[in-house]
Structures are given as C-alpha cells and as structure tokens.
Amino acid sequence: MIDFTLNGRACRLPSPPPGTTVLEVLRDSLGHDGTKEGCASGDCGACTIALQTPGQSLTTANACLMPAHQLEGCELITVEGLASPDSTTPALSPVQQALVATHASQCGFCTPGIAISLAVLHASHQQHVSQGNVFDDRQRDTLIDHALGGNLCRCTGYRPIREAAHRLLAGEFGTANLSAHSSLLLASVPETIVTPTIDSHYHRPRTLAALLALRTAQPDMPLIAGGTDLMLEHTQRLRDFPALLDVTQVTELCRIDEGEHAGQSGWWLGAAVTYRQLMPLLREHYPEAADLLNRLGSEQIRNRGTLGGNIGNASPIGDMPPLLIALEAYVQLMNQRGERILKLEDFFLDYKRTQLMPDEIIHSVFLPRPVKSQRLAAYKLSKRRDDDISTLLGVFAWRRDADGGAQHWRIAFGGMASIPARAFHLEALLDEIPLESLTPATLNRQTLGMIEQATGADFSPLSDVRGSREYRLKAASHLIPRVAQRILNEQAAHSATHHTANTSSSQPPESLDAYLAQS
Amino acid sequence: MRTLHSLDSDHAHALERTAKDSPTGQRHAQKHESAERHVSGTARYVDDLPLPKGALHLAIGMSEVAHGTLDTLDLNAVRAAPGVVCVLSATDIPGHQDVGPVFPGDPLLVSNVISHYGQALFVVAADSERAARQAARLAKMSVTPLPITLDPRVAAQQGDLVRPTHTQARLSNGRPADLESVTKALGKSVWQVEGELESGGQEHFYLESQAALALPGEDDEMLVHSSSQHPSEVQKLIAEVLGVPFHAVTVETRRMGGGFGGKETQAAPVACLAAMIARHTGRAARLRLPRGDDMHLTGKRHPFHHRYQFGVDDSGRVETAIITLTGDCGHSPDLSDAIVDRAMFHADNAYFLGNAYVRGIRARTNVASNTAFRGFGGPQGMLAVEAAMENIARQLGRDPLEIRKRNLYCEGRDTTHYGQHVNQHPLLATLIEQLEEEGHYWQRRAEIRAFNAKSPVVKKGLALTPVKFGISFTAKHLNQAGALVHIYTDGSVQVNHGGTEMGQGLHTKMIQVAARELGLSVDKVRITATRTDKVPNTSPTAASSGADLNGMATRDACLRLKARLLDFAAEHLAQPRTSLTLEAGELLSAGSVLMTWGELVQAAYIERISLSEKGFYATPDIHYDRERGTGHPFYYYAFGAALCEVVVDTLSGEYRLEGADILHDVGDSLNPAIDIGQIEGGFVQGMGWLTSEELKWNEDGRLLTDGPATYKIPAISDVPAGALRVQLLEGHPNSAASIYRSKAVGEPPLMLAMSVWAALRDALASISDYRHAVRLDTPATPERVMLAASVQREWLSEQSLHDQTSQSQPPHVQPHQVTP
Questions:
Q1: What is the ipTM of this complex?
Q2: Is the minimum CB–CB distance between B569 and chain A shorter than 8 Å?
Q3: Bridge-based pairing state of the strands B222-226 and B636-649
Q4: Which of B129, B264, B319, B747 is labelled catalytic?
C-alpha cells in the first residue's frame, strides 16, 4: 500500500508494479484526468504536479517520471486541487484567475501543468516575501523563467503566461493558498482505491546497511533516486522493472556534511542530494556552478534529479561531472565490505561504463571548498537555452595569481568524448600562452590553429543529433578566447575600480551571457 | 529597449477594459469559451473521455526500415502477448486500403511496400495501453530492402515526384511568359543576385498527440471521437475503410490540444484504426499515439530547397525573378500539391517580382508524408525572396529595409506573378513605415552599427520584414461552410458549425457572432462539439479560414432566425417590422422595450414558429486556372510586419531575441485578445521553425529527433520579458466583405518570424562590415550561426587580402554574382 494525500484527501493505493508512474496512477487508477501526458519523458511539463515531502518545501515534479511508490508520505496536489475545495462550486484559485484574465490558455493542454508550476512559484514567492525578501521585475522574470522553463506551450508564445505570473506575484489575484488546504483532511480515514494488488518489489531501505545488503543480494536490481533518467526505460523503452532499489530514504545519502579529504576541506555531498538541495551551497561558494545548474533540465527535473544519479548514469555529457571534474571532486563508493574514494575523473571508463562494481553504490561526492583565488567559468552550449541537454559543456577552473593572471588550469568537457573528461592539452596551452594573445581581438590564424590543435588532441567528438563533430571542435576551441577575454575584462575592471570609477562596461562582452549581464 | 507599445500588462488591462465596456462581449476581448475548464483541468480531450466497459487500448506496429518490400509479417508473438485481444493487419481491412486525402498513396496499413521508417504495419488491441505497446514490438518480419532517397534534390533529378511540376510565369507587363523569355529578361538587368537555401521541416508538436476513441453502435453504426481538424474527412475515410455508407459513421471533435495543420489529414488513420478494431471486436477502442510514435508516423512541415535568380536595377528594384522551389513531400502526395502551390503563390511575399518564373517541384523521399502546417507552404515560399532582399542590399551597399521598401507592391506594380491584383496593397507601406518610425529603426540601426564596430564577439542584428498572405483554400470547393443554430424555449441558444476548436478561439468567435446577431450576451450562447451529424460535408479547419467561413455561415443561420422572429413579432405585436430590433436580450421597437428575448422565444414557440435554422456560406469571386497559372485564388490578403532585434555570440553561435515589434492587419478584429494570441503564438512558432527546431534523420531514414528531449520548440526564456510587443493595425477594415470586415489570423503571423532570421543574417553581415550576405539555412541553430560567422570571417580575411592587392577596384563597382 502507498499512503499519501491527494489534494488534501488521504489516499491509500495498492502497490502497483515497480516503475509505475504517478501519472499512470493519476489517470488510470484515480480518475484524475486533469494532469496530461504530453511526452512521458519529462520534457514538456504537461504532467506537472506539486508535491510536499515531509520536511521539504512544496516543489513541482513531472508525474510521468516519478515512481508512484515515492508518493508514500507525500502530499500531492494536482490541478484538480487548485480551486478552493470548500464550496460546492469550486472558485478559481488565484493562479487560475490570473491565467483566465490574461488569455493565457489557447488549446489548454499544457495549461494544467503551467497552473501547477505557477501555483508553486506563487507560494514560494510569497514565502520569500514574508521573510522580507523583495524582488524587482527583472528578478521576478528570472524566477518565472526558472519556474516555467520546463513547461512547454505550443500555442501562446508565452507572453500572456509571463504576464499572468507577474500579476500573480504582484498579488493582484490574492494570496497563495496551496498549503492551506493541502493539510485539510490529512487526519481523515484513508480512502482505499480498489485496483488489483500486485506483489511489489519496490525496495525503499531506510538505513545504509539495509541498502548495501540489498545491493549485495541483488546486484542486478536497478538503483533509483529521482528517476529522471531511469524512468525513461519504463516510459519510452517500455521496460518492466521486476524490482527497484530506491536510495532516497537513506539518511546518509541525503545529507550535505562539511569534511575533509586529501588535505582539503570541503563538503561530502550525499548521492541522493537533489540538484535543488545542492543549489544554496553552490550559490554561496560557486555561483557560476549554480548558474549552470539552473540550466540543467527544468525546475521539475532539478527538484527530483540527484547528484549520484547524474554521475551513476555515466552520460557522456552529464552537466555535473564536467563541473565536478574541473573542481577536483572525488566520489565515494561503498559496498558491504567497505568504501573506496576515487577522483571523479577516474571514475568514468568508457561510454556508459564506470568503476562502479555491481555490489557498490555511490555514497557521496567530495567537493573541495574554493580557495580564495579560485575562479570558475562554466559554458554550456545547447540548441535551446533552457531545458536542453548540452551539445557541449566546457568548465574552466583556474587560480588567480597576484597580478590578476591565471594559473593552475583544470578544464573538463562534456559532450566531446564518450565520457566527461579533462582537456589536458588545452590546460597546457593556457598555462603556456599569454591570455593577451588569445582574445577574440588578438586571435590570429596561428593562435587559433594552436587552440584547435589542442582541442583535437584532447577530443575526437562524434556527430550526433545535438551537433556535428565540426561544430563541437570549433565551438570548444572558441571557448578559449572567451575565457581569456573574460579574465582580461575582470583584470581591467579590477584595476579600474582601483583607479577610476566604473569603466568596466567599456570592455566588449566576451560572450552572449556577459553581454546580457551587462545590459 | 524602446517599445512600440505600452508594457505588456498595461496592454492586457486595455484589453480587459474593452471587454468590460461591452457587456455582451460580442466583438471584443471575450475570454476563450473554455478558459475556466482549461485552467481547472476539466476541459476534456479524447484521452480523458470515460471509457465504456471492456474498452480496448491500441498501439501501432511500425516499420523499422525506410524502404522495402514486406515479404512476411509474423504476428504470432504479438497475438500471444499478455493482454492482447486482437491484432489486425492490411488483409483485415474490410474496405478501402488507401486513406490518401486527395490522391492515393497512403496505405492505412502496409500490405506490400514500406515507404518510410515508422510506417504503420499492423494494429494491436489489448486491455491496457502498455500491454498493446509492448506487444507491438514483438512482431517478426522479413523485408527486402529498396534504395532510400532522403534528399529531395536527388529525387527531383531522378524525376521521382509525388505530383507533376507546376509553373507560374508572367512578364511585368502582364503577358504570359516562359523560362526562355524570363531568362532573357534576367540578362538585361545590371545586377544579378542568385543563391540557394535550404529550409528544414517542422514537427507540429501539438501538446496533445493524435488520438481517437471509436464506439461501435448498432449494426454498422460507429461514433468516433477524433482529435481532428477535419471531422468530415475522418468520417468519409472511416466509412470507406469499413465499407459502410457515410451515414453510418459520426465523428465528433470537441477540442484538440493543438493542431497547427498536423491534424488536418494525419488524424484520420488513427481514427480509422480505432474504428477497425471497434468494428472487429464490437468493443470501444482508443488509440492515442505516444509522442515518439506520433513523431515517427505523422508528416511534418515540408523541408524545401530554394534556388533563386534575381535581376535588379541600380536602385535595388527587382526587375526579374526566377525561383525554383523543391518541396520534400515525403513518400506520398498527401496535400503536397496544394502546399507547393501555396509556396509558389507566396514566392513574392510582399514584393512585385516584375518578370517572373516560379516553378514548384514535388519531390518524393522516404520519410513520413509531409503535410499541412500553419502557413501551408507559404512560409517556405517567402524565404527565397527575403534572402534575396538582403543579398541585394549587401551587393548594392544599401540597408535591407531600403531595398524591401523599394520592392513592395505599389500603384502600378500591384499584380502578382499569378495575375491577382493585390487589394489593399498600400497597407504594406503603412505597416512598414509605422514600425520604422515608432520602432526607431534608423536610430537603432546607427546604435547597432556603433556597438558592432566595438564588439568583436557579440554582434547585434536588426531587420524589418513584411508579410502578405493570401486567404482562401486554393482548392476552391473547400471554401464553403455550414452552421446549425437552435434556440431553446428558455431562450438559450446552441450553435454548431463545421469548424473545429484547436485552441485558436474559433468557438469563442462564433459565440460572439451569434450573440451579436441575436442581440444576446455571450453567456446565453453555447457551442457544442463539432459533429458530422449536425453540420455535414464540412471543410477542414485550416487555411486560416475557420472564422471567415464558419462565421459567415453562423451569421447566415442567425440572420434567418432573427428575420423569422422579427416577422413573427411584427405580426404578433402589431408593430411595424422595420422598427423592431433585438438588443441586449430584449425586443425593442424604435428603442423601447416590448418584451424580453425569453418572452419572445416562448411566444414564437407557442405560435409554432421554428426556432432552429441552418446557415451556409460559399466564398465568392475566387478562381484559379492551373493550366495557365493565373487567376484570383485568394479572396483577400492579410498583411503584417515585424521589426526584430537579435544579439548573437559569433564564436559560439548562441543568440537571443532582444525585441520583436509586430504590427499586424486583422481588419476589424473579431476579438483582439484572441487575435493578439494568434499573432504572438504564430510568431513564436515561426521563430522555432527558423531557429531551434531541427529535424534530423540518420542515413537509414530513421527520425532521430523523435521527442522533446532532442526536438526543441521554444521555451519561455526564448521569449524574454518585454521582448514581444504586438499591436493590431487600426482603422483598416477588410476591403473584402468578410465577417464584420475582419481578417483571418491563424497563419499569417507565423511568417513574421522571418524577421528573426533576417536579423540573425544582419548580425552576421556586420562581420563583413555589411558587405557580404552569408547563406544561412534554416533552422538557424547555434551551430549554423557559428559556422556562418566563420564563413564571414574567412570572407573578410580573403577580402582584405584582395583589397590590398587590387586597390584600383573598390567593391560595389562591378556587377558581380553573389553565390553564397
């Protein structure tokens, strides 16, 4: 049985086969047809639900990728639960009123998902405001972009949806009332939904020991955390999982602890820590990494996807591994016999092959604390800015020396090889050649040729659906003048603040993002 | 960023005010009739309909080769799979095997030759959708492969066409022409501009995939709920496939979760398969395509290859144009004849071509049969001439806007290459000049040039492009519509018409039409689902014509009812007939209230006056002589213009839309909120087509971009806050007698997005100091933009070498060919 609350009503669901999704349960068993299936791959947002797990704030998720078993103990809010349940003819909630008033639905199929994403945004914004945080229009736009980046609309062109969001956040339609009624009937008697019971083989151990024992006993049983990748096996390749081993209830895997490793202080990040949970730490210590993370998947994916999952699935692209490799992170693997700690860059062996043994799990990742001179640049190139997988991802870490120069380069790329990997030749090149001769303005055929040669020595990428080999090699090479110009611009800005007032904007932007940050 | 218009929210407030000012909401920003249901999740789509007991779920067994003969198809494992109830293949089809909408070529299920990857081979019915889908993957088959053609130019060279080539040729003086005479004219111009371009296709990506639910009735009767833009054709094809008379089949469409042309013909096979299973098993059957299956099975916007040669005078004015458009039609004709025709009809966009020779080739390739998509070939047709406008500008060292303005249709140069006079053509200049002025084009041009001169990596681009789009089905017989209006004895009104609702707000507009004619508030009027048993023999809701055609038919029915009621009232109440009006729910005589609408209806009922009426409309004055390539195929034209600014990272190819100011002509708007919604949505969809939406196939003809993980339609951040500013052109009612002098709005705005592509090219041109126009195929992905920037840098370095060695020949003196 799975016990949860659905729109404030306690709900008891007979355990479905492992891998059954929340969307399947909602539409096929619970008769909640308001939540739509647009893609069943977590890319369109039509199935967006709101979820409150114990001890966490209200978040969105893609119902199509979430295993129904993870509903246990959660409060689930669907579009049917947005309108006030008090009256017999439900009154539209603020978010629904806003969408109607701004003509923000046309065909209406994406609308329930958008309403949920907006309702959660409204509630979290309200919470921030009540804590004294104030957002200007531009900051609100960023919040809106993040909240709705994973909700595709094919009809409206988004302008009215953005307007609905702005007017909602401005309080024009009243206060968010999501949390108020989600606890309404928590204490009432569970309603049993009658569907055939099938023997469940969905394991959710609560202790590390139990997890490791199950892993040893059944090494073939797939591990699942957020499910944002694994569940595609169920929805797209129609694989039936005989059993699943869910790591998300193991406390040790869900924690972020300060610690030390290899003589450095830093943090042990549990493998089941979600991107969302990781965000505040990155925002504080590695803001560039936080910006990158904001472009990983969508809000719905960031709310569910985990660090361990991203590393474990060994994607050649994987947005986190190139970042973590550049930051000299380690991965801690564990089985019943003990643990081992590897440099993350040594963990990946070949396409979708890693050092992980069948009886091992990824326990955590060690992320070193930045030293004072630490600098970072992360460049993700993709066909679409948001909710897209990188065509290539270049992460550059270096240390600023006393006169503003750069040293100790660590560069890692995703999308350039069968695994996320370091770019040793490019590192050597940046160590050797002065940045001044590598900027877009000073670059000549000779220096560009040297960069391209180094890139070619580091990587031999494939052409695929996201980009050609030619584009990958050229675009990766072009990140060198970008990072060189960035450092020189910083130097110039730095010396300018010491000498004269704000002249930094006279530097030409080295990238689109730099331009957008300036303007 | 300067704005043409007030802030977004002010704009919406203004819309709300107009709605409030008019309590009946008859002509104004009335909200979508399903808005509350949309936001509550209670708007039902086919997959949400409750199923009767024992209903079956279907899945399609698809081919895994792109071309070959199907020698054996072993379905034993499929039949034996758990949950499977019924498996049918081509031999089980009782009636017609071919469901081609106009011409044959689309087998419902393949019996012999497989002609694209993902083609339907058989259908499985099971007690759950998952069981059906899993079973569908268990088929064993042997196929003898045949050679695959994926390149339309190769197909054209081999003469492998789905339909014959069509040409339109006309000299600037109106005389008929041929290739020889136009080629001769071309040679007389001082400037020659020629080039090539490839434009990619586009997946519709309606959020609701194709779906149908078939409910068997008594004997041979069948009711099918279909997510279709063309219920009458679905009805026809189901009847033909089942071998029953049309009257046995009823098709109902309440709403679609998006259509965009993708449910004009492509909905029918899905509905036919559901009906076949329902007939075979006697059980309800639902087929809803999973996203990937939908993308493999159904056709898309036609990719095109464009080749153009323009003869231009010293002022940049086009004197002669030779344009060859090769449409990639996929494996069968489907609607490609009309689609490539429409591309040809729009090869001029908004410009007088002078001596013109336009040729349209319909190439056959081994992909799903490409089909209708918002614009229906029109957008593709316009690309070549818009590419040429910039090329001419660079060649002559002029601003592209100057060249575009110089070539607009104008007095004395106002007849298209197919001989239709362009009515209201002065609106083109009006639109462009208003945007030019209010959008501060020249000031921004100067600022952008200054910015670009100092910025080696990030470059800005600006472009102002017009759109002229012909309104009417070019298949003349489709320009008809019917409606059925019932008044019930409580005074409530039910309207039914032949059009379908796919989100475009057609039903809302039809409610407004009925309410206006009957003098009622919109809440008195209800639209019911489109059904073939209410209004028969309807045309697809397509060609932007939904409101034009059905609005007139609905109005016709209402006018008849109104006349009958007023005749009755005049007699019943002994009032002069001419003094009677219906306003705001009341019957008035010379302004004073006689009785309420409800009382009038009651009285008429008691006196045995019929309260039900049908309406009909057929568009007048349209004709096209395909033999001669001339005529008047369009009832009127809709116009628009867009001014776009982009910013491009020339080292990575990343870019962003900074602003889009749009001014669009909808005549007298039926509903400004809905019209603005169509313009915004069309523009962004067009932007997706031209920028991020890239379809890729592997060499075996398998579509690789078969889901939203790899096929990227615009997301919210691609339309930055405040960047999209839409204004309706005011004060210019349609010169044609359309419904309340409004204009069609579904398709024309999509082509406003050409300004994004033109602005990207403008930014790339800045690398060459605006001396060289670079070819930029579409979609202009970051990859294509970056590679084009590299081409520009190469050009510049070669040019500077050239300039150093031949100082005596500054650029732009000698006419030369631009061959990107």
A1: 0.95
A2: no
A3: unpaired
A4: B747
